[in-house]
Amino acid sequence: MPNEHSATPPRTPARRVTIYDIAKHVGVSPSTASRALHKPGRVSKATEERIKRAAAELGYRANPAARALPTGRTGTIALLVADITNPVSFEIVRGAEREAEKHGYVLVTSEFREDHVKEASRAHSLAPSVDAFVLASSRLDDEAIAKIAALNPVVTINRESPSAFSVLADHEPALRELVRTLAAEGHERLCYLAGPESSWTDARRWSVIEAAAGERGLEAVRLGPNRPTRKAGSAALEAVRATGASAVLAYNDIMAIGLLTAARDARLSVPGDLSITGIDDIFGSDFTAPPLTTIAAPLEDMGAAAIRHVHAALSGEREPGTDTYPTQLLMRGSVGPAPRTKGKK
Q: In whole angstroms, what is the distance from residue 179 CA to residue 208 CA?
């Protein structure tokens, strides 16, 4: 009698489907199959569709290590973001993912949690297995970025660097318009609720706000540095009130929302007692009570642009430079007249 408890013979693992299998199935050369899958647009559309359909039917999965052997390329791009929970990152990743797929790249996203040491470590660890880097809101200095650029091409988003191509949001016109609007509403003292000390955009924003306020005879004070979080924005209320400012320009929407929430909990009126503004126009910024005045940037487009510049760099077509995108001031209910001017004609 057979042993009913006898072990089932182990299954032989299924053999990995290769480019050669797909080529044989479709009736094309292996090089044609490879071009269709890894370099879209290099073969006729009809042939490319037949090859991709066969790859899907056979269960083909690209092997980055194998792809790298003949070319030195893995077809992989690393996107490093400061905070994956920040809605700004969502938009950048979405745009980058869309563009990467269009060019046949795999996008790997890694978070460094606002820590420049972790950012550098992640980049150097990933360097052997990726073709290029996109550094979004990098906290690294120019020297550290140059060291990474010596290993792989680098494109930065909202961080200008001489060793990388940079995709930037031009906040200056919108910030100047915001300061002009606040001056027209009777605000004489402004508070800039600053972001991280290592943030390149933080320094640029404060420089513009300070200059624009001075040109209009307004006083501007800087409160920070701060972590760019809702908790930090909320915790800053007492310090903000101590400055005597009647309007606050926060480093980002998340901090502004934290401050707005703390003001409401303290039974302060926004904008009756304090006007509050942010930057980024993140999802939900118009759901607050009152809706948050903010500055919008085309973040998804910027993420896509970063991948296009990576592709150009890998093709030898792009030197370090800048690509600048306009921003837009969105006036909403969180800005109003300075308290002492209310009711005046």
A: 10
